[in-house]
Each structure stands twice: as C-alpha cells, then as structure tokens.
Amino acid sequence: MALIELQDVTKLYEMGDQTVRALDGISIRIEKNDYVAFIGSSGSGKSTMLNILGCLDRPTSGRYHLNEQNVENLTPNELAGIRNHEIGFIFQSFNLLPRATALYNVMQPLIYRNVGWSKRKAMAMEALRRVNLAERVNHLPNQLSGGQRQRVAIARALVTNPSILLADEPTGNLDSRTTTEIMQLFDELHREGHTLILVTHEDEIARHCKRIVEMKDGRIHRDVMTTAMTAAGNGVAAHAHVSDAEGSNAPVSNEQGSSARVSDKQVSN
Prior knowledge:
Helix content is 28%, strand content 28%. By secondary structure, it is α/β, with parallel strands linked by helices. Strand 1 and strand 2 form a beta hairpin. Helix 3 crosses helix 4, helix 3 packs parallel to helix 5 and helix 4 crosses helix 5. The longest helix is centred in the last third of the chain and has 16 residues.
C-alpha cells in the first residue's frame, strides 16, 4: 500500500457569501522514498495540499490514508499525535525558538514523546551531526547563518525519524549558494531512504525531485515522473515520464506515459 493515498479529496472554505474550492477532487498516491515537488501559482491549491498532507487541516470530503491509517476524520488531538510521530516539518522561516540553542530546538519534538533527558540529548546530537552542525549545538538562532538555521530545522524534522519530511518553500529565505547546499542535503536524505515532499515555486528546486506535481485551480494539472535528478545549478533538464492522465486528478505510476523532457513551462508557476 502507498505511504500516502488521497481519494477524491476536496477542501472548501467559506469566505463571506462565497465558497472557495481550494482542492477539487484530488486523487494521488505517494510511495515510500518518493521525492515530490508540488508547484503552482498563487491560489493553485499547493499550500492547501501541504496542510492536508501535514494533517494541519482536514479535507471537507474524500479519503486520506497515511501509512495505512485513515486520518481524515481524526480529532485534533489525534492529528497532533500523527504529526509528532509521522511527519517532520521544515518551514521557509525556520520556526526556531529564538532563546533556545540549536540543541534544545532539535530536542523539542521529543518532549512530546516523553523521551528521557539523556536519550533526548543523544538523539538531538545525532540529528545535528547528520546535518553537519555538531560544532554549533550551543549556538542560539541569531548566532547562526540562514543556512545553518535551516539545517537546525531539518535536524529537528529528522530527530523523530518520521515517515515523511514535508518542506514548505525550504529555500525561500536563502541565497543561491546556501540553497544549493540545502538541496544537496535533501538529495542525500532521499538517497538514504527518506520520503520528501516539497512545496516550491522555484523551477530549479523542483528539478531536484523525482516527481513534479503541478497544481492549477485546486486540481492536479500535470504529474511528471522524472527518471534522473538534476545536479543543482547545472542547467540540464531532467528526463521524465508524463502521465496519460495529464490534466486530470488520476494517480500516476512510473510505467504510465511516454518519455518527455521537462520544459520550463512544465515546472513554472
């Protein structure tokens, strides 16, 4: 069974006397060790998709299975438990505690699991070593560069060993050199077996992923399976398989579609 499966998911918002259909009958499967970028212009539905996948919001209708568990009708407390055990969040603005060291920031998710102090510290240290910040464990966020702060955020996401790493514009506040470093880290995490889902408006970021899902008007406009990831900054487009269901919300597999080259239009906003 897929790690993530959405079946005919719809999300409606009431705005005054109008109803906004943020997601319109989305069906998609994401497998373990997938590396997926959701792209699209403002209002396309990609942020709402992120909230649904991250159990930060519930669909108005449809079904959502995460790691073989039906989650769309869980209570807020049950959803909080799912987030703590299954999902590691990485945000554009880092969301670090400003008066806590890098070590304490990474330890925070483990508090809610009632992990003892010694084990909590050891797990956080290991996560910081994984992102090459072992020498910065006692630094406060304002003593770290933007790239280092994002590495702390990635370590915090990794420390609970989640099923999914969910990143919302993870390089949006970084310069180009630091962006390259962070995306190389994501590539490494994918090769180690992690499942990564990114929301981005940047073509270069999307091309790192194995799969690019373009959203438009709350629907899946295009779902592209890449057969090779591009090294950051080399300007070479990845080869891809384009689904026969292009323009619809049908799930895509590696076998569907014909070989194609990802164009700027395919991964643009």
